[in-house]
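Hypothesis: this fold can be encoded by more than one sequence.
Test: take the structure tokens below, design a sequence, compare later.
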């Protein structure tokens, strides 16, 4: 996110950025708080938003009193980038698990292993959520562990259950 080829701000751009910061700093932080997965990330997202605004202040066409939608768009983009995995540090075990990545046998399975193949129909998020639910975790606890909203966990749980029921109905 840091740019090496950044140009210094002109005095007019610096003054405009200062006005925007005075007008909108608390609103940008409040909006960053709603976009952050963890409360402690909100200040980082807001700070990176202002850095992004500094780099692209020349593209702002609205007057200063109507600049909040532009800043809100920057907050959304920064929040997405903030949580996007960094390829240099990502390891295969970060995004895969045993249920979602097992290899299928070459021969058709016997009837008792149809249950295992039904799991292959699940997406990776559905498999993770169902595995944690099978361990007895609540939807809130699953959401906290995976860094997901409870509604997302609920959708993945029920869509995974539907896939399993459909797959098992076809197998037996």
């Amino acid at each position: 996110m840091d740019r090496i080829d950044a140009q210094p701000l002109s005095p007019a751009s610096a003054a405009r950025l200062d006005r925007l910061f005075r007008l909108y700093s608390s609103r940008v932080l409040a909006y960053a708080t709603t976009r952050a997965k963890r409360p402690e990330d909100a200040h980082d997202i807001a700070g990176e938003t202002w850095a992004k605004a500094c780099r692209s202040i020349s593209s702002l066409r609205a007057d200063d009193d109507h600049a909040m939608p532009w800043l809100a768009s920057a907050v959304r983009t920064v929040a997405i980038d903030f949580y996007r995995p960094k390829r240099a540090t990502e390891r295969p075990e970060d995004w895969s698990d045993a249920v979602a990545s097992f290899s299928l046998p070459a021969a058709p399975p016997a009837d008792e292993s149809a249950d295992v193949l039904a799991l292959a129909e699940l997406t990776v998020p559905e498999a993770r959520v169902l595995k944690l639910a099978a361990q007895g975790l609540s939807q809130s606890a699953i959401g906290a562990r995976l860094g997901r909203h409870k509604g997302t966990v609920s959708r993945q749980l029920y869509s995974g259950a539907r896939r399993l029921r459909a797959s098992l109905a076809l197998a037996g």
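The chain has a mean pLDDT of 81. Residues 11-35 form the longest helix (25 residues).
Hypothesis status: open.
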